[in-house]
UniProtKB/TrEMBL annotation, chain A:
Gene Ontology molecular function terms on file: ATPase binding; proton-transporting ATPase activity, rotational mechanism
InterPro entries membership: V-ATPase_116kDa_su (IPR002490), V-type_ATPase_116kDa_su_euka (IPR026028)
Residues in coiled coil: 101-128
Protein role: Essential component of the vacuolar proton pump (V-ATPase), a multimeric enzyme that catalyzes the translocation of protons across the membranes. Required for assembly and activity of the V-ATPase.
Keyword terms: Coiled coil, Hydrogen ion transport, Ion transport, Membrane, Transmembrane, Transmembrane helix, Transport
Protein name, entry field: V-type proton ATPase subunit a
Organism: Oidiodendron maius (strain Zn)
Automatic annotation (TrEMBL), chain B:
InterPro entries per the UniProt record, alphabetical: ATPase_V0-cplx_e1/e2_su
GO cellular component, one term: endomembrane system
Family matches, as Pfam families: ATP_synt_H (PF05493)
Keyword DNA-binding: no
Protein name as annotated: V-type proton ATPase subunit
Length: 806, 75
């Protein structure tokens, strides 16, 4: 049976497979599977420690090679030699043979020794040079004790000397102008030359001890000036000799490192892959007698043919007579959840995965999120001008995808990862901006307005005037531009956007609730449909569905004769005093409302009790027919022998039963199934019911954030316009020109920084919350195990050090 | 031109567009993604438009201004 195609609607079908691989080609096969990256191996040696596993030796050796490579890299950094970077998308390495790895290991071993010895000699030479250089300074002064001391210790040095010698000394010092190099860590140190005169051998000895303990280097200086001149001369020649030797050594070292720099990145990748292969091989169970490796793995059922052909290929290439065997095994383990994504859907799926991993094969909320997330964002971010800026940024990131992928800035990488989300957000904000008729807080007037200001006789400039509505014509698309700048614009916009939020929230939640029906059907549990989904849906619709109905009805009725009913009061009185109508709305309103309230109230006990009691009934029926849970079977059968001998439906043969248990339980882990516990189910259902009913109210209210944020966004952009560019446009003359330029840039900068970036982030977070909490709580089970295939690509992406070499 | 019937005309157009999206989505692995995304976006855009249109169908308040001026030469 060919499994259905994997779509984003639910996670892919998974198969548990068993692999029997000849020991000789284990490495090659795992490495080939790592390139495919679709197989997740199970740990078959979980009881053995990391040190007891079969391939620990190899991993240690590779660890050592990796350390050597890192050492080379550190040396290159020190010498300032650039590494030739790798493009991991372009360079793919064929799996190296074992011999190549050995060669690489040997080569890095010898290279390491060479570099270490070069380095050592460089350091010793440098140390000697330093000593001589310091000396060449101390010779300049005359004194009994002379030496060189780090500058930051001078103050302490002076104080200690003064105290111990009670002031019986004369000290002179001067700073060495150029900083000296400490070869051990390549840091520069500032030092001072000092000379201390004192009399008496003991005092001199004391001074010597103190200076040495403070890290000063002492040099003997002769009192005779001729000898001293000779000394200086000698020191200077030695210095120049050392200098040339040093230069040579450094040159050789640099040449060696440059050589390595060319291929170091590739070596690193190879070693990392090789290590991962052996780590994976350690998960396999090794049959010493038959020289085979046995592995268990999860893989998408649809990629089984690909995996089979890969195994076959590797086998053929190795020319092995023993075939590698792969066979699918049936298991009652929960398969991991694998959502196949592409460049476009990856970001949206990440939004969902950040909240939780979907249960295996439940409806994946990532699919509707592709649209609902940017759409709800756009409802809050409705301004076409700002949308264009965002859209431009997203398009640029998508156009220069390849180049920008290399940018290693964390903040930018985050924006880059969400470039397709940004694209969708931009497109939808463009649309909602047109609906709100906001372009950088200004309005556009593509259609004729439905409003008209009729000027009467008594109207003067500056008095209030009210527009009249056309009889037949309505503004066809979005908000009428006549509202823009009107005194009571906010009044209208608030009422409109508030209802818009409720309506959109209701649609979003109803949609999400419907997904729970699909889940109930897919998992073949009708009780979840009839005991959870149906009563929940009726409860939600009879309250908030009715509210939505009322909103739409109120809009479609012309209220010029009767007073318009207040919907909020209507909904409140519907529950507080069912049957009484404050302001009549439509015929039969009292009856409809009482029916709806009753309908909603009845759903609560159904929601509360139907599912737990049904499950209990089902469980008891199964028990009465003699079925037992798998785990308890052996226990029960032991009891059977003693107490329940007389039972009519006693199983005929205990022996065969135990045989069956033993066989099956090979693949049963303890945590896989639970016993039925009525109290637990009941408590769970009580919590669900209370949560669901209260959440219907609070979640609907929560969608009002759509209104609040879009209002804030619009007002903020109006304020920004008035404070900056509006002032610039008002003034004229030379000052006006300057002012326009200044205020324009101020306005542009603040628009991008505050309105697009900051407000955009905030709207995104709110949209995120609406998905995670308000929508996903209606259907998402989210107790899945993420699929983590063994994949070289993924491994290299996750590895931090890869960033340095690519 | 645009009156209460526009809501239903718009609905018909959007339903047609959704049907087109269902049948014309490119085949292959991404078909589900195409279908779901197109239909959802048509629906949500229609909702947004229809709500805005309905809100202005029989408005309870009218725009008021105090900053209007009669320019010389205009009536």
């Amino acid at each position: 049976m060919a499994p259905a195609q994997d779509t984003m609607f639910r996670s892919a079908d998974m198969s548990m497979v068993q692999l029997y691989i000849a020991n000789e080609i284990g490495r090659e096969i795992v490495s080939a599977l790592g390139e495919i990256g679709l197989v997740q191996f199970r740990d078959l040696n979980s009881e053995t420690t990391a040190f007891q596993r079969t391939f620990t030796q190899e991993i240690r050796r590779l660890d050592n090679v990796e350390r050597q490579l890192r050492y080379f890299h550190a040396q290159m950094d020190k010498a300032g030699i650039p590494l030739r970077r790798l493009d991991l998308d372009v360079h793919t390495f064929a799996a190296p043979s074992a011999a190549e790895i050995d060669e690489l290991a040997d080569r890095s071993q010898s290279l390491e020794q060479r570099i270490a010895s070069l380095n050592d000699s460089y350091e010793t030479l440098k140390q000697r040079e330093n000593g001589d250089a310091e000396r060449s300074f101390s010779v300049m002064n005359i004194g009994f004790v002379a030496g060189v001391i780090p500058r930051d210790r001078v103050a302490a040095f002076e104080r200690i000397l003064w105290r111990t010698l009670r002031g019986n000394l004369y000290m002179n010092q001067s700073e060495i102008p150029e900083p000296l190099m400490d070869p051990t860590n390549n840091e520069t140190v500032n030092k001072n030359v000092f000379v201390i005169f004192a009399h008496g051998k003991e005092l001199i000895a004391k001074i010597r001890k103190i200076s040495e303990s403070l890290g000063a280097d002492l040099y003997s200086v002769d009192e005779n000036s001729d000898l001293r001149r000779d000394q200086i001369h000698e020191v200077n020649t030695r210095l120049s000799d050392l200098g040339s030797v040093l230069r040579n050594t450094k040159q050789t070292l640099d040449a060696e490192l440059t050589q390595i720099a060319r291929s170091l990145a590739a070596w690193m990748v190879i070693i990392k892959k090789e290590k991962a292969v052996y780590q994976t091989l350690n998960l396999f169970s090794y049959d010493h007698a038959r020289k085979t490796l046995i592995a268990e793995a999860w893989c998408p059922s649809n990629s089984l043919p690909l995996i089979k052909s890969t195994l076959h290929d590797v086998n053929n290439r190795a020319g092995l007579s023993v075939p590698s065997i792969i066979n699918e095994i049936r298991t009652n383990k929960t398969p991991p959840t694998y959502q196949k994504t592409n460049r476009f859907t990856e970001g949206f799926q990440t939004i969902i995965n950040a909240y939780g991993t979907a249960k295996y094969q439940e409806v994946n909320p990532g699919l509707p999120t592709i649209i609902t997330f940017p759409f709800l964002f756009a409802v809050m971010f409705g301004d076409s001008g700002h949308a264009l800026l965002m859209l431009g940024a997203a398009c640029a990131m998508i156009f220069w995808e390849k180049q920008l992928k290399k940018v290693r800035d964390e903040l930018f990488q985050m924006a880059f990862y969400g470039r397709y989300i940004m694209l969708m957000m931009g497109i939808f904000s463009l649309y909602t901006g047109l609906i709100y008729n906001d372009v950088f807080s200004k309005s556009i007037s593509p259609f004729q307005s439905a409003w008209k200001f009729n000027i009467t006789e008594e109207w003067k400039n500056g008095t209030s005037i009210e527009a009249t509505l056309s009889d037949t014509y309505r503004y066809p698309f979005g908000l009428d531009w006549m509202w823009h700048g009107a005194q009571n614009q906010l009044l209208f916009a608030n009422s409109y956007k508030m209802k818009l939020s409720i309506l959109l929230g209701w649609s979003h939640m109803t949609y999400s609730l419907c997904l729970s029906y699909i889940n109930g059907r897919h998992f073949k549990s009708p009780i979840d449909v009839w005991g959870v989904f149906v009563p929940g849906m009726i409860f939600f619709q009879s309250i908030f569905g009715y509210l939505v109905f009322a909103i739409v009805l109120k809009w479609s009725v012309k209220w010029d004769k009767a007073p318009a009913p207040g919907l909020l009061n209507m909904l409140i009185y519907m529950f507080l005093s069912p049957g009484t109508i404050d302001i009549p709305f439509y015929k039969g309103q009292a009856f409809v409302q009482i029916t709806l309230v009753l309908l909603a109230v009845i759903q609560v006990p159904i929601l509360l009790f139907l599912k737990p009691f049904y499950l209990r009934w089902e469980h008891n029926r199964a028990r009465a027919q003699g079925y037992r849970g798998l785990g308890e079977a052996s226990r029960v059968s032991a009891l059977d022998g003693d107490d329940e001998d007389g039972h009519a439906n006693h199983r005929p043969s205990v022996a065969s039963d135990e045989g069956g248990v033993a066989m099956i339980s090979q693949h049963v882990d303890d945590e896989e199934h639970e016993e039925f516990e009525f109290s637990e189910v009941m408590i769970h259902q009580v919590i669900h019911t209370i949560e669901f009913c209260l959440n219907c109210v609070s979640h609907t209210a929560s969608y009002l954030r759509l209104w609040a944020l879009s209002l804030a966004h619009q007002q903020l952009s109006i304020v920004l316009w008035n404070m900056t560019l509006a002032n610039g446009l008002k003034s004229s003359g030379v000052i006006g020109v300057v002012l326009i330029v200044v205020t324009f840039y101020l306005w542009l900068f603040l628009t991008i920084a505050v309105l697009v970036v900051m407000e955009g982030t905030s709207a995104m977070l709110h949209s995120l919350r609406l998905h995670w909490v308000e929508a996903m709580s209606k259907h998402f089970m989210g107790d899945g195990i993420p699929f983590q295939p063994f994949s070289f690509k993924q491994m290299l992406e996750d590895d931090d050090s890869t960033a340095e070499i690519s | 031109m645009a009156n209460g019937w526009s809501i239903f005309i718009g609905l018909i157009i959007v339903i047609l567009a959704c049907l087109a999206a269902w049948f014309l989505s490119p085949k292959g692995e991404t078909q589900t993604t195409w279908r779901s995304s197109l239909i959802l976006s048509f629906t949500s855009c229609y909702l947004m438009w229809a709500i805005t249109f309905l809100a202005q169908l029989h408005p309870l308040i009218h725009p008021q201004r105090t900053d209007l001026k009669i320019m010389p030469g205009h009536e």
